[in-house]
């Protein structure tokens, strides 16, 4: 009970320290100060457009470097002011307003081709279009009103930048803590996969989600760390945080590689699961330690006692006990598998201990000296060129179709509000703009969450209105609800919708006495907007994932192939790990995350559009398994003194590449299926097996002569021969299954 209470309070404190809550507080302060200062001066007509400007530009303040945030907010403020002025001047004539609104909504939405930050900047412009119909009387000329909206955005920016200089490390620490926590959860789910046979499919899906989220966090943290390192130089803080990040990337790769062939493990240890349980517990604790480190960063307190060495000893003892109770000549594969597991956990523990030491200032991270020209290669650049606009200006672009769809639905919503003379009809447009997304699945889920959140918010507002009619309470609740809404909009949209409804109702309650009518119209307008958004995504040039999934699968296969080629090169040359290897690994992880996300979106679409869903899920799983097998082979080769790669190894490599290339060609160019050279593979496999058997004979002879423990070199050679041969065979089997599954699917 005490533990649950402690965890509850920690979650509350974590939320209050979060970047989202901080930005929401800055927004609330900027709005409150803008209105409060000018109200005190008797100039409320100035305070309102300033507050609107703050509200419109705040979403563009997304995670990234200070330079990018400043540029993003300035562009959003300028766009909001310009849009308000254009729509305002065009609203004098309804026949002129409709085409202007349609063109503006399309043009602004189309800016999303430049990426996430650009889509948030575009959101400021879209919201400006919507709020231009709010009919707020400011008793000033339209151009002055528009300038004040832009000035409000700059006022918010000044407070945000001020907070950045007061606490410059806040965002980095938050991102780092989130990556640590997610990586810890990833390891814990991996630990469950060892024994939880019945629930592996669900656990695998959870891993897909976690990996996708980790990829996104890694991208953001990579940009922040590398860019801040450029500005601040090779400072101790920058080195330490970069070291932690590098270790986290390696931990994720190791986590994907442990263990890989679960079916084989189930077969070998069907009667000895108690040994696997020990390894499962150790991996779970390693994940828990990362979560505890993330909590220490969040709460600014020391990390709890580190017991990793004790848990690693448990794994070591398990290996020794198992070796003592078996006939090693009969169960050599079993003991080698346990050795591989132990080696994995030992390497993982070293990396987590490094993070532990860095966070507790036990190690300064002085070994991190990377040239800026090298590290910037790991940042995914966003090209802001006119060429990007040209390339996407066609119906093949999801963003183009979304922009056109949104423009049409907004015009329909505007016409409905005008025809039926609906009070506050711009709420219909607001709902459309907020919940409508390029893909059907996200729009559907947002529609549902928006409606439920609005109903809950309306009910809570009615209860409060019946309890009190105090305008000061309404004002306080309005500001508090606004803060909570912006804090939660990225975390939990349904709850955010509750607070959005509450904030709007209480703010209107200060302006209009009939609060119940306000609640009624709010609910009706939300329903109308949500229905229009849903119908628009369903019937107006919908973007179904089935239409693009083949390209995403092909890209993931190509990324895995490039990663495999880098592993092959490194196996031959060894030495220092090249940047090309790291870049190929990063791309393989990112593309696998993109594929998982695309499949998740596909499952949210209508059943009639989910063509070959089972086969596509199999392709997603096979690609994930192939990447895990690659990570396993790559980490083994990197961390062990391996022998020279043989010609037989290259035979397998070529045949794996053959299957992957054929699968990619089948997806993109509708090529015919090409089978592998079975005879060539049999010969290569036979020679690899012979090499392994020779080593086994040497070891058996040593055992017969009374030598219980093998020499380190012989043990490593046995381990390499067994693992590399098995991994090659498994990679070949997976690649062949990928190829066969591609040619089975009719939809791709």
UniProtKB/TrEMBL annotation:
Residues 414-533 form the Integral membrane bound transporter domain. It is a multi-pass membrane protein. Residues 75-342 form the Integral membrane protein YccS N-terminal domain. GO terms for cellular component: plasma membrane. It is found in: Cell membrane. Keywords: Cell membrane, Coiled coil, Membrane, Transmembrane, Transmembrane helix. The keyword Membrane applies. This is Uncharacterized protein. The chain crosses the membrane at residues 21-40, 70-88, 94-113, 120-136, 142-166, 403-420, 454-473, 493-511, 523-544. Belongs to the YccS/YhfK family. Residues 671-701 form a coiled coil. InterPro entries: Memb_transporter_dom, YccS_N.
């Amino acid at each position: 009970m005490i533990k649950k209470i402690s965890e509850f309070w920690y979650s509350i404190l974590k939320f209050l320290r979060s970047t989202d809550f901080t930005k929401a507080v800055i927004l609330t302060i900027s709005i409150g100060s803008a209105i409060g200062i000018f109200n005190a001066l008797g100039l409320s007509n100035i305070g309102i457009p300033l507050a609107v400007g703050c509200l419109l530009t705040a979403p563009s303040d997304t995670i990234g470097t200070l330079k990018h945030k400043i540029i993003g907010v300035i562009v959003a403020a300028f766009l909001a002011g310009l849009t308000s002025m254009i729509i305002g001047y065009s609203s004098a004539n309804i026949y002129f307003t409709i085409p202007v609104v349609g063109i503006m909504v399309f043009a602004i939405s189309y800016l999303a081709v430049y990426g996430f930050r650009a889509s948030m900047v575009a959101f400021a412009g879209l919201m400006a279009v919507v709020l231009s119909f709010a009919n707020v009387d400011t008793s000033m000329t339209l151009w002055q009103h528009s300038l004040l909206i832009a000035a409000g955005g700059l006022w918010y920016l000044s407070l945000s930048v001020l907070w950045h200089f007061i606490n410059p490390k806040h965002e980095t620490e938050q991102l780092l803590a989130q990556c640590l926590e997610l990586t810890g959860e990833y390891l814990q789910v991996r630990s469950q996969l060892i024994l939880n046979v019945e629930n592996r499919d669900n656990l695998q899906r959870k891993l897909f989600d976690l990996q996708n989220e980790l990829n996104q966090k890694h991208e953001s943290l990579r940009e922040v760390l590398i860019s801040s390192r450029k500005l601040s130089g090779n400072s101790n803080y920058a080195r330490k945080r970069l070291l932690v990040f590098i270790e986290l990337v390696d931990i994720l790769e190791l986590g994907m590689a442990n263990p890989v062939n679960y079916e084989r493990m189930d077969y070998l240890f069907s009667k000895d699961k108690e040994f696997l349980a020990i390894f499962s517990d150790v991996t779970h604790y390693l994940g828990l330690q990362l979560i505890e480190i993330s909590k220490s960063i969040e709460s600014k307190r020391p990390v709890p006692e580190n017991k990793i060495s004790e848990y690693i000893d448990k794994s070591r003892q398990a290996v020794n006990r198992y070796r003592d109770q078996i006939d090693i000549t009969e169960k050599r594969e079993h003991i080698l598998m346990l050795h591989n597991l132990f080696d994995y956990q030992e390497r993982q523990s070293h990396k987590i201990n490094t993070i532990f030491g860095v966070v507790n200032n036990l190690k300064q991270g002085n070994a991190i000296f990377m040239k800026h020209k090298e590290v910037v290669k790991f940042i995914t650049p966003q090209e802001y060129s006119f060429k990007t606009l040209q390339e996407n200006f066609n119906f093949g672009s999801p963003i183009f179709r979304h922009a056109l769809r949104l423009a049409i639905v907004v015009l329909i919503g505007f016409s409905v509000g005008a025809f039926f003379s609906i009070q506050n009809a711009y709420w219909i447009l607001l709902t459309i703009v907020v919940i409508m997304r390029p893909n059907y699945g996200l729009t559907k889920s947002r529609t549902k969450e928006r409606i439920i959140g609005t109903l809950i918010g309306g009910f809570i507002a009615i209860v409060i209105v019946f309890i009190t009619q105090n305008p000061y309470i309404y004002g306080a609740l309005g500001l508090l609800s606004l803060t909570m809404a912006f804090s939660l909009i990225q975390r939990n949209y349904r709850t955010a919708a509750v607070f959005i409804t509450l904030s709007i109702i209480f703010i209107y309650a200060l302006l209009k006495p009939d609060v119940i009518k306000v609640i009624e119209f709010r609910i009706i307008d939300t329903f109308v907007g949500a229905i229009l958004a849903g119908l628009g995504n369903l019937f107006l040039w919908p973007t179904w994932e089935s239409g693009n999934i083949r390209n995403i699968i092909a890209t993931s296969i190509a990324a895995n192939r490039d990663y495999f080629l880098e592993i092959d090169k490194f196996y031959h040359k060894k030495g220092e790990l090249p940047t090309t290897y790291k870049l190929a690994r990063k791309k393989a992880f990112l593309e696998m995350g993109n594929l998982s996300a695309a499949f998740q979106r596909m499952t949210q679409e209508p059943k009639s559009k989910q063509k070959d869903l089972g086969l596509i899920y199999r392709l997603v799983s096979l690609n994930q398994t192939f990447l895990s097998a690659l990570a396993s082979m790559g980490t083994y080769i990197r961390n062990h003194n391996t022998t020279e790669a043989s010609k037989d190894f290259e035979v397998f490599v070529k045949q794996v590449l053959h299957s992957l290339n054929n699968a990619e060609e089948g997806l993109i160019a509708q090529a015919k299926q090409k089978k592998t050279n079975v005879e060539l593979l049999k010969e290569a496999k036979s020679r690899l097996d012979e090499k392994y058997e020779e080593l086994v004979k040497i070891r058996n002879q040593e055992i017969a002569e009374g030598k219980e423990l093998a020499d380190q070199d012989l043990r490593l050679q046995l381990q390499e021969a067994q693992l590399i041969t098995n991994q090659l065979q498994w990679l070949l089997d997976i690649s062949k299954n990928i190829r066969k599954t591609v040619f089975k699917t009719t939809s791709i």
